[in-house]
């Protein structure tokens, strides 16, 4: 009987030891982090943060302290839009009679001129003929949407010091920026080249310093600019159109 009791006690001790072993192992396992969970935590921590809610101007503007994007042009806001596939067959230099343009702006806005017209029409600035733009044209175009426009997409804002060089002939940062994005980019490698060609063509012309009717304007221009003598010019309200071929020789503007 005594021997049986000793054996039973030994069995109980062994069972208790085994139970204690498995209990400790389970606790240790539960305390250790799961490799899958730990890897997920590390992956989440290392995920890059992306910028969101950037404005169109921030996307388009150059990161340069010398540039303010308040004159930048957003392509998707343009009512005519993009045509990057149209051919460039000739060029049209568009000149604007500034007093007439500013009269229209004042009639429409009073003293609250839009930012695009403030430089040209504000501060009693007296300007005559100015460059509206130099437009690459498609000879087969049936409407304005058929001409080349925004050929390089939505471009960044140009440096203010570059624009400042040409304000005397195209009086407005937004005007210069817009003409480069919409028209110049379709035929020139850089804005500098585009503005320089505008300046060259503008400087080659003698222009009247008074407002003239359409026919009077044509006669005056041909009388004082021999290169225009046999050319067909174009005009609309407060604007004069002179056309050039791809070798920059004066040609007839299309009547359509």
Total count of domains: 2
Q: Helix count, per DSSP?
A: 9
What is the number of beta strands?
5
Oligomer: single chain
Report the uncertain regions: 26-69
Global outline: globular
Q: So, CATH architecture of the largest domain?
A: Alpha-Beta Complex
Distance between the termini: 126 Å
Rg from Cα: 37 Å
Strand content: 5-15%
Q: Let me know the average pLDDT.
A: 81
CATH-derived topology of the largest domain? Ribonuclease Rh, Chain A
List the helices and strands and how they pair.
Layout: H1 2-31, H2 35-46, H3 56-60, E1 90-97, H4 98-109, H5 115-121, E2 129-137, H6 160-164, H7 173-182, H8 191-203, H9 214-224, E3 234-236, E4 239-244, E5 250-251
Antiparallel strand pairs: 1-2, 1-4, 3-4, 4-5
Characteristics:
256 residues; Ribonuclease Rh, Chain A; single chain; alpha+beta; 5 strands
Describe the fold and architecture:
Helices cover 41% and strands 11% of the residues. With 256 residues, the chain is an alpha+beta fold. The protein has 2 domains: 2-46; 73-251, Alpha-Beta Complex (Ribonuclease Rh, Chain A), CATH 3.90.730.
Short description:
With 256 residues, the protein is of the alpha+beta class. It has 2 domains: 2-46; 73-251, Ribonuclease T2-like (Ribonuclease Rh, Chain A), CATH 3.90.730. It is built from 9 helices and 5 strands, in the order H-H-H-E-H-H-E-H-H-H-H-E-E-E.
């Amino acid at each position: 009987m005594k021997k049986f009791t000793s054996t039973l006690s030994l069995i109980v001790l062994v069972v208790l030891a085994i139970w204690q072993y498995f209990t400790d192992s389970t606790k240790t396992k539960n305390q250790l982090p799961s490799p899958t969970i730990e890897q997920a935590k590390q992956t989440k921590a290392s995920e890059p943060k992306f910028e969101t809610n950037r404005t169109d101007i921030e996307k388009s503007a150059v990161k340069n302290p010398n540039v303010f994007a308040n004159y930048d042009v957003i392509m998707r806001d343009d009512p005519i839009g993009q045509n990057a596939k149209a051919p460039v067959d000739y060029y049209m230099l568009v000149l604007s009679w500034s007093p007439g343009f500013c009269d229209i702006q004042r009639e429409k806005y009073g003293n609250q001129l839009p930012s695009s017209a403030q430089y040209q029409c504000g501060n009693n600035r007296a300007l005559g003929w100015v460059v509206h733009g130099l437009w690459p044209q498609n000879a087969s175009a049936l409407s304005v949407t058929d001409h080349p426009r925004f050929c390089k997409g939505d471009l960044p804002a140009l440096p203010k010091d570059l624009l400042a060089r040409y304000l005397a002939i195209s009086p407005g940062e937004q005007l210069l920026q817009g003409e480069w994005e919409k028209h110049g980019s379709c035929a020139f490698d850089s804005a500098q080249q585009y503005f320089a060609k505008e300046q060259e063509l503008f400087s080659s012309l003698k222009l009247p310093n008074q407002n003239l009717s359409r026919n009077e304007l044509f006669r005056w221009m041909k009388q004082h600019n021999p290169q225009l003598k046999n050319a067909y010019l174009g005009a609309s309200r407060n604007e004069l159109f002179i056309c050039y071929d791809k070798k920059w020789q004066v040609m007839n503007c299309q009547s359509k």
